[in-house]
Amino acid sequence: MKIRVIVSAVTLALTVSACSKQSETEELTSAIFPIEQGSQVVEQSASNKALTQGSLTQARLKKIGETLDIRYRVVTNIPDEHCDKDAADGRCFLAEIDLTSEIAIDSKDWSIYYSQMRPIQSIVGDEFTISRIQGDLHKISPAAGFSGIKKGQTKTIQFRGELWQLSETDAMPNYYIVADGLEPVIIRSTQLSLDPETGMELRPYVSAFTDSETQYKRRETDKLEWATTQVLYRSNLDTPNSPKLAENAILPTPTKVALKSDAKSVSLKSGLKLTLNGVSPGAVDAALQRLAQLGVEQTDKGIKTVLLPLPVPGVLGEYRLDISSSEIKILAADDAGFSYGLASLAALVDVETLTVNPMLVEDAPRYDFRGMHIDVSRNFHSKQLILDLLDQMAAYKLNKLHLHMADDEGWRLEIAGLPELTDVGSKRCHDLNEDTCLLPQLGSGPFSEAKVNGYYSKADYIEILQYANARQIQVIPSMDMPGHSRAAIKSMEARYRTLMDADKAEQAKQYLLSDSEDKTVYSSIQYYSDNTLNVCMESTFTFIDKVIDEIAALHKQAGVPLDLYHIGADETAGAWIESPACKAFIANNDKGVTKMEELGAYFIERTAKLLADKGIEAAGWSDGMSHTRPENMPKQVQSNIWDVVAHGGHQRAHQQANLGWQAVLGQPEVLYFDFPYEADPKEHGYYWASRNTNSKKIHSFMAGNLPANAEQWTDIEALPFEADDTLKTDEAGKVINGPLKASFSFAGIQGQLWSETVRSDEVAEYMMFPRLMMLAERAWHQPSWEVPYQHQGAVYNQTSGYFTKEMRQAQANDWHRVANTLGAKELLKLDKANIAYRVPTPGAVIKEGKLFANVIFPGLKIEYRDAGGQWQAYAEGVEGVEVTTPVEVRVIAADGKRKGRTLVVN
Predict the structure, then answer these.
(1) What is the pLDDT of residues 510-539, one digit of tens each?
(2) Whose CB has fewer CB within 10 Å in the chain, the N or C terminal residue?
(3) Which residues are named in the active-site annotation (predicted)?
């Protein structure tokens, strides 16, 4: 029998002042916990300590870890009078952690470490404390009032945290218990498991959300509907199941397709007999490999396939594909064009019949920059995942891989001469002094062997570069700085300590990135107080110069020059203010820096010049780049625009494009693939800009007219918004905001996968696919229904009327073609490539005892079971299917093997 005890209502507020940069999207504020610095923490395992502590032995600690049942539960996101009115807009959520023990725990000499996504404002009761160590790492400890936990007893720790928790994935896994002198033990009940049907993560320790009003609303004004089967059914209802729409469709959509009069299809069962005509075999080998994967091999008996130059060379990537009954011709101006022509041939192939229809395709890309960003720092992802991603990028004509390899939580690339970056910075474990690893974060657990740890060797990186280059894809390395740099900082501090112990003081200081005398109190957006490079120390720039030179050397070895490097430059959080090094720098420098507020700009400007002197273009995120003085920047720089359209994001995009910079769009509400597909708390991902970014929404993106999206989108709470794109000046007549100048345009678009909640390669693929195909569609093809941009400026909202009825219908018709193409053809090709794409959740309703169901990608099969029976195929029809409640539904992958997540029909 379990005994449930609710800890008595005595509120213990744990606060400390902090300075932080406000998020532009969620108004995240300062961390509010006492921070335990590594040197002050004594819970460090050591072989020379006794194996017991009080009543705890290693065996007993292991037993607790194996049997302690932990449950995490969000009670409500509705704030009450106990919320901290000075923090996070006065909002808080109420949550509980249940501890149920199978053995009696009387000792107080233990602590449980875990990752808490939102900082805690207060804890109820006097039996436990929760303190924040750094970032999201928290510690639960018995307090003065702890009376032990009896066998079978449940003790509930109730607390309030900042803002809200709207997803079950917010509750990070791998809690672990420690006691002084003993090895840490993972608490088994908090480990992830895998759903055998979907292959996706399950969180058995998290209580499911059950109430939309109290658990899934951000605030009282929130109108976003939970994506129940009924909501999904309504959304899918206007998309017909019409396989004919997919017959001659190519994704991404070509500029022009003309079917030939000879209607007889062309069989590719005998393969292709290729004539290269001087084109390098390596340039098209990857495209040919994909065709072979689909069943179209190179053979002497295949249809004649000829590669030829375009009569008049066009833009990069332009091609012409001419299919007739006796011959296939691909004309292009460059290697990329030939690859894209073959990719379009693969898109046309019916994988069941291996046939294509005679046609002429004339095509060229809308944007030169068609990118995908993947974060391997927060949680590491394998080299194989990157290679598989490159294959699919090439298949859909994407040409830039933004590889984010260093952030607060990990450094993922071997750098010659700085082994500490990977020896220490590539792994997280329970070393609170951070001599051998970084602190655990994001539910990584106490052991460095966890799969979320790791790095690419120099040989791995060279292989990635060459693999990408063979697919006409440029790899853009990124080591984030000066903020988001904790992994580098702590690695260099560990290096410093080692060399100082060896009496090598000068060598120890050579690459140091932090000022030990800096007493600045700040909190980054991820709640770190020590993650920003000290930009006033010359050793910081010595380090940067070293890293860039070593990465450039790897590119040279690979035969792929480094000509674009992403420095990050975003989200610095009030660092340096109390740094003696910075005070001295400002007092004595000759760099034109006169106050602390100019240090961020100084760093970006200096680093961009350092890169330019090496012949490398600098790129950075738009918020950091906006702080620079354009006259101090190289003429050629790239800015990645990550501003939310609903929050006026078009303004910074236009400002930076108007500087002549290469502005690459990455609007979070459609291009952040770490956000949930649908508004459902069981879906993976963070959700600070969007809670429902499905393929249809990405397809709707009008990249050429950012503010016009206000006519078709709502904000994160499903509320309408207005985008004012008219000229604005201050009292002195200086332009504050204004429209995009006619002489400038955007360089391209890029999708982003950040990995805070993405712990495996399978989940990474789930989050990227099939959304990556819609990214490719919008990067390559300009749709006829996009609202033309108005360079004189305009105000856009839900009633402004620039997005006409005819445009909306054209957009809907275009989506019908794309949705059917994915359902009938393209997802099966992902199956053949073993890509673990997201199988969608179905729409379904019950009317008069009959089940009606549909799916976002017509052509995928739906199954149902009623009253606990067996799964049955749902045959789509207007009459519906007789069922007995309760009814469950799910979608099957295109190849009939994997299953999507099961929903109960409401």
Answers:
(1) 999 999 999 999 999 999 999 999 999 999
(2) N
(3) 571 (proton donor)
What token pair was written down for 467?
Answer: 């693999």
CATH code: domain 3-215 is 2.60.40.290
pTM exceeds 0.90: yes
Distance of CA 710 to the CA centre of its chain: 24
Q: List residues bridging with 190 in a β-sheet.
A: none
Residues pairing with 194 in the sheet: 201
Tell me, yes or no, if the two domains 256-363 and 376-420+438-483+538-571+597-805 fold the same way: no
Write the DSSP assignment of 604-659 as a string of letters: HHHHHHHHHHTT-EEEEEHHHHTTS-GGGS-SSEEEEE---GGGTHHHHHHHHHHT
Query: Distance between alpha carbon 817 and the CA centroid of its chain, in Å?
Result: 28
- Rounded Cα distance between 427 and 82, Å, is 38
Closest CA to 102 of 177, 178, 153: 153
Torsion sign (Cα): 52, 56, 59, 62: negative
Q: Are 538 and 517 in contact (CB under 8 A)?
A: no
CATH architecture of 812-906: Sandwich (2.60)
Residue at token pair 């207007």: 878
124-159 residue pLDDT tens: 999 999 999 999 999 999 999 999 999 999 999 999
Mean of pLDDT values over 706-731: 97
Task: Exactly one of 24, 162, 201, 571 is catalytic; name it.
Answer: 571
* Residue-wise pLDDT tens digits, 585-604: 999 988 889 999 999 999 99
Separation of alpha carbons 647 and 26, rounded Å: 11
Q: What is the pLDDT of residues 66-110, one digit of tens each?
A: 999 999 999 999 999 999 998 878 899 999 999 999 999 999 999
- Distance from C-alpha of 31 to C-alpha of 121, rounded to nearest angstrom: 9
Q: Over the stretch 337-390, which tens digit does the pLDDT of each residue have?
A: 999 999 999 999 999 999 999 999 999 999 999 999 999 999 999 999 999 999
Q: Are 378 and 752 in contact (CB under 8 A)?
A: no
Which amino acid is it at 808?
A: R
Report residue 69 as tokens. 């049942």
Which residue type does 466 have?
Q
Question: What torsion do the CA atoms of 449, 450, 453, 457 make, to the nearest 10 degrees?
Answer: 50
Task: Look up residue 756 and give its two tokens.
Answer: 């805070």
Preceding peptide of 365 cis, ω within 30°: no
Domain boundaries, the chain: 3-215, 256-363, 376-420+438-483+538-571+597-805, 812-906
CA distance 870 to 432: 51
- The answer to whether 287 and 393 are in contact (CB under 8 A) is no
Residue-wise DSSP of 33-83: S----GGG------TTS-SEETTEEHHHHHHHHHH-EEEEEEEE-S--TTS
DSSP 384: H
Annotated active-site residue 571? The verdict is yes
| Other CB atoms within 10 Å distance of the CB of residue 733 | 6
Report the CATH architecture of 256-363.
Answer: 2-Layer Sandwich (3.30)
Q: What is the CATH number of domain 376-420+438-483+538-571+597-805?
A: 3.20.20.80
Q: Let me know: does 316 contact 340? Beta carbons within 8 Å.
A: no
